[in-house]
Structures are given as C-alpha cells and as structure tokens.
Specification:
Layout (H helix, E strand, L loop, with lengths): L1 H11 L14 E5 L2 E4 L4 E4 L2 H4 L8 H12 L12 H14 L4 E6 L2 H16 L3 E5 L8 H5 L15 E5 L14 H19 L6 E4 L15 H12 L2 E5 L24 E4 L10 E6 H4 L14 H16 L2 H18 L5 E7 L2 E6 L9 H13 L2 E2 L1 E3 L5 E4 L7 H21 L1
Parallel strand pairs: 3-13, 5-6, 5-7, 7-8, 8-9
Antiparallel strand pairs: 1-2, 2-3, 4-10, 9-10, 11-12, 12-15, 14-15
Helix pairs in contact: 3-10, 4-10, 7-8, 11-13, 12-13
Length: 429
C-alpha cells in the first residue's frame, strides 16, 4: 500500500515536496502522543506535524468544538460577515499578547501571517527595506522567502523587499560563538548598527526575527539579544516583528511568547502551527496603530473561518487550563539534561528551550556538519518507534518538538531511544 501511494505521490506532486525516511510512512490514526501508520506500526511522535499538533491527537475538547460547528451546517462564511468564534478567539489572543492596544488578523498559515506583517510594516514606514537574521526561515511566499536567511530554502533571488541580514540567531557557528553572553550580544548589536549604517538608506521598515530559529535547527540566541536590538531599532524608528509561529503558546516553557525572554514588547507577533492543533490557522497580533494603517480594501476569504477559530479557541483554552507551558518547562529540562549528559562524539551542540530542542551532529573532534548522521539517526529512531525531525542550515540538526501534553514516562522512553540511536549511528559512520 505504501509503495503504491508513494508512486502516486511522485507522479502528481512536485519533486521538491520532500518526504521523510527511505520508506515514507502514511499516518492514519493517532491518540495522545502516538500515531499509527498504514502498515500498523505505532510511533511516539516527537515532531508533531512540525510543532503543529501541540496538544496531541484525538483530544475530545477540540474535536467536540469542531463537531459543534460542523453540525450547524456552516463550514464557511468569509470575513464579510460577523464570525462569533473569530471575535472570541481574537479577544483571547489580544488579552494574552501583552501589547498595549492589540488587534488581531487571522490567516491560514504562518507564511500568510508573516506576509501580512511585512505588508503592514512596509506600508506604515513607506519603505521596502527589511532587516532579518542569518539562518532564519519565515515562509514560502514571495516576501517571506526574501527575508529567509537560509540558502536551502531560498528558491529565488527575486524580492519585493530589500533585505539586510544581521548576526545573532545562530550562535554555534557564529564568529562570536566563544564570547560570553554579554559580549556576544554586544558584538551582534555592533553588527546591527553597522548593517543599518552601511547597507540601508536608514529608513528601514522593520526587523523580523524568530526568538528561536525553527527550521534553522532550533538555534537559540542568548536571552536579551532581541531586546538589545530593539534599543537600536528604536533610534531609527524601525518596527520589530516577532515570528512566533514555532515559539508561541508556551512551547519554550519559561514564557508564553518566545520574545518575552528578551525583555521587549514587539510591535507585532505572528503565529500559527500550535494554535490550531492541526487546523489550518495563522495570524498576527499587532498594535492598533500598525494594524489599522492600511489604506486599501482587504479581507481574508478563509482566514478566521468558524471551524478553525472554534477549534483553535478550544485548543488554546485546553493548553491554558492544563498548564502545558509548565509541562514543557519541566519535561524539556529533563530531555535537555539527558541529551547533554549523553557521551557521543557526534553531538556538537544541544540547545533549545522547553519542548523545542535541537541536537547538532558534527564530525568527531570538530564542527564539520554530518547531515548523513542526522538522516541515519532519524531512521534508527523510527525503527525503534520514535519520530523526530531535522533541520539546520546543513541538515545536520535533530529537531525534537513533541506535543506539549507529553508525559514523564514518554520523555524517558524517547530519550532512551534517541541516545541509543545516536550511539549506533556513531558506531556505523
């Protein structure tokens, strides 16, 4: 069955739509933190649909909210009409945002959310100049690809914006990697100021940044870096957009939004993924002065539809009621400690926060990336019943981001499987 479906996939879908594993799997059912494929194999899921199934699988409260809307017979109305679920979810997100006068706009994805944020900022500042971080990823549309600082995901050099990239997000391979936190931040701030003074016309629209770089391999800068950047940005009137598509909703454990680790309130935050627990929803929350500053008509046909917003609201309330942020902090610490204690010459760096952990694999004795090791560890973990992700600039970083309902015993099982897989890969390579 899988071979047949794979052949059909290759026949009608793009070559660049990649699949994990030498023998790709079709996931047909799920419960809690486990999924089952079409051949009946069950796995502990430690990638959660790329951080999207944040609550897990088959959650009654979320399924019931979706069923209630389906039972009305109305799957869609568009934003030309009032949508109660949209308003209620927007009110909740505004309340949680920490912004002064927040307004919310819903989209279908993180890509759309970031496109909207860039449109708002460039319109507000009447400038197409944007600052972004090296090793970043912000989506697969025209402007979001342009601000993505990772060649592996940059499909075109054509761009509606003029981008200047700065240091800071990816510390492990930075020229400042050996600096203390304070000196690292100071060096990156100096770089930011020099980039503004030498590569821009000064009237930059915004900086867009991920508090932890997701596709970039969960690269984690020192706390306070983006706050130090914001001090420079304020001197020039440059807006700050925090891309919370992967770091939002408490996944980092210590904070509800990733940007809060940096001691600054941004002008806008984009979100998606975990909010809907699998439903197609994204959006942004921004200061009203920024959100309302559009002088043209604009709507979203599907953004904020009653099914997605109803289900997302249920997911958000579940997350808050069960303190999944606290669970992410507790079990993330357990995983980080276990991985850092594992004796393997393949492991160059273990980083991240909460249930957002990256393990960078390198050639023993140095920092040379070994993407083949990451691919092998993924295969070995799958054979042992664990699904993980990978990423990073060189494709050599294991990415761990299970549902935030993870249990202590499941974390223990995953740690054992992962360390065993790393050790075997080290023996083989």
């Amino acid at each position: 069955m899988s071979d047949s479906l794979l052949a059909r996939h290759k026949a009608v879908l793009p070559d660049w739509l990649s699949l994990y594993y030498q023998e790709p799997i079709e996931i047909v059912s799920g419960s809690g933190r486990h999924v089952t494929d079409a051949d009946g194999n069950t796995y502990l899921d430690f990638f959660a649909g790329i951080l999207t199934n944040a609550i897990g699988y088959d959650i009654d409260e979320i399924s019931d909210a979706i069923r209630r809307q389906v039972d009305t017979g109305v799957l869609h109305t568009s934003t030309l009409y009032l949508i109660r679920q949209q308003v209620e979810l927007a009110e909740r997100i505004a309340e949680l945002s920490g912004l002064r006068e927040p307004k919310v706009f819903f989209t279908n994805s993180g890509t759309e959310a970031n496109e909207t944020a860039l449109m708002l900022a460039t319109q507000k500042r009447r400038s197409n100049q944007v600052l972004a971080l090296r090793n970043s990823y912000h989506g697969r549309a025209f402007a979001t690809l342009a601000v993505t600082g990772n060649r592996g995901w940059s499909a075109t050099s054509l761009s509606p914006v003029k981008v200047s990239y700065v240091h800071g997000g990816y510390r492990y391979r930075s020229p400042f990697s050996e600096f203390s936190d304070a000196d690292y931040i100071a060096a990156c701030v100096d770089d930011l100021r020099e980039v503004i003074e030498t590569t821009t016309a000064g009237d930059v629209a915004c900086m867009i940044a991920e508090p932890i770089q997701g596709v970039g391999g969960f690269a984690t800068p020192p706390d306070g870096l983006l706050g130090a950047f914001a001090e420079v940005l304020d001197e020039y009137g440059i807006l700050l957009i925090s891309d919370e598509v992967q770091t939002g909703w408490g996944r980092t454990g210590e904070h509800f939004w990733g940007i809060q680790a940096h001691g600054v309130t941004p002008d806008a935050m984009t979100f998606a993924k975990g909010l809907g627990n699998g439903l197609a929803i994204g959006g942004l929350v921004a200061e009203a002065s920024l959100m309302d500053d559009i002088g043209a008509n604009s709507i979203s046909t599907f953004g904020g539809n009653p099914i997605s917003t109803g289900g997302a609201h249920a997911a958000l309330e579940y997350l808050l009621a069960h303190d999944l942020q606290g669970n992410a902090a507790k079990l993330g610490s357990q995983l980080l400690q276990g991985l850092r204690a594992h004796d393997s010459a393949l492991i160059g760096d273990v980083r991240g926060k909460g249930l957002m952990i990256g393990v960078e694999l390198v050639a023993p004795g140095g920092k040379k990336p070994v993407p083949e090791a990451a691919a092998r560890v993924m295969e070995l973990a799958k054979q042992r019943g664990l699904l993980i992700g990978k990423g990073g600039l060189h494709g050599n970083v294991l990415r761990l981001a299970p549902p935030m309902t993870l249990t202590e015993s499941e974390a223990t099982d995953a740690l054992r499987i992962l360390t065993d897989s790393i050790s075997q890969a080290e023996r083989e390579l």
